[in-house]
Amino acid sequence: MAAPGRWTQDYQMGLSYIQSRIRRKQVFHGAELQGHHWIDQGGRQQESGLAGGIDWRLPVQDVFLELPIYGSWNHLMQRANMDSTGLPVGPIDYWSAQFSPAVSDSVGSIYFRVGLNAIFTGQGSAWDKPYLPPVVHFEFPLVKHVLNVYAGLEGSADNGGMRARVEAMPFLSESARYEAIRQASLYAGASGRLTSSIGYRFGFRQRSYANYAMFTRSFTAMTEGTDSGRFDVEYVGVTMLEPSGELSFQNGLGWEVRAFATLRTATRNDGGTLYHVPSSEIGGQAFFNLKDKIRFESTIIYRGSRLGQGATGDETLPAFLDGRLSAVYTYNKQLNATFRVDNLFHSRTTWWMGYPVQGIRANLGLVYKF
Is residue 274 within 8 Å of residue 214, measured between CB atoms? Predict the structure, then answer.
């Protein structure tokens, strides 16, 4: 069964300040604040949220003590989520805070940053267990401009709100549970330039999710004919291994070409089945900038197969070729005109179980900045 259409309203605002000139002894480097009010399905879900951060760097003798602070808060009301008395549950406040003190410096040609990520999430007055992945990053040029080796470990919390879940999964139930997602990432690789025009990057990343958002459909509801067409979300521990590579080419005539590939192996930490995770993304991009007035961009991506849930059991959803084409005309600093075509190859393969990819479609728009 297909889910009914979705109507959302999303109102956003944002403020940011970045120092135009950075001096060595300068402590404050910048700040940002973003807010939103989101209405889903005429009010069945409503969410208001704020997210912001401050970038502090304190020079201590010959090193820098980085003191970035980030936080977010979402106020979510779900009228479709009822308690035992038939009344809506909520509203509920979901919040996150991240403080990442670290020391950064260079020793000869080696750059390093070492510190701690202190990540806190919770609902209302209830706190989750603190998440404390370290901050580690090293860079070392083995051959100047030709071969640069890097490695590190980082962590983050994604508290983008229920609107971020619906953006990732348009068929998500209005009563789905929400959590801020926490993850740590271990990475290593090499980058550099083969010539003045050709650059490269090859690397490996291991992502460890404390609570990955996995979208699911009910086997029982599909077999009994009571399926609403909406997906649910289950938060599970997941480990992903991602080798990747990239080659890029630039010239002085405004052309830039990029080829990239990411392979992915993902497993649940509890040994269960993991759904709707693409096995690979392989593709290329081409950019052309015409006298800084018109910018063209074309992207082709091969999206790998995924495991989905069907009425008769698990099914492998086929890979498909996705293509996009866009152009931006800059009239002046305030006004841009945009044109975009999605799904150039008009692929109709199933992306989410029961839902084919939308066919070829085009968009025109105007962007005014003030």
Answer: yes
For domain 194-370, the CATH class is: mainly beta
Are 297 and 287 contacting, i.e. CB atoms less than 8 angstroms apart? yes
pLDDT in tens, 183-229: 999 999 999 999 989 999 999 999 999 999 999 987 777 777 777 77
pTM, 2 dp: 0.86
| Spans of all domains in the chain | 1-170, 194-370
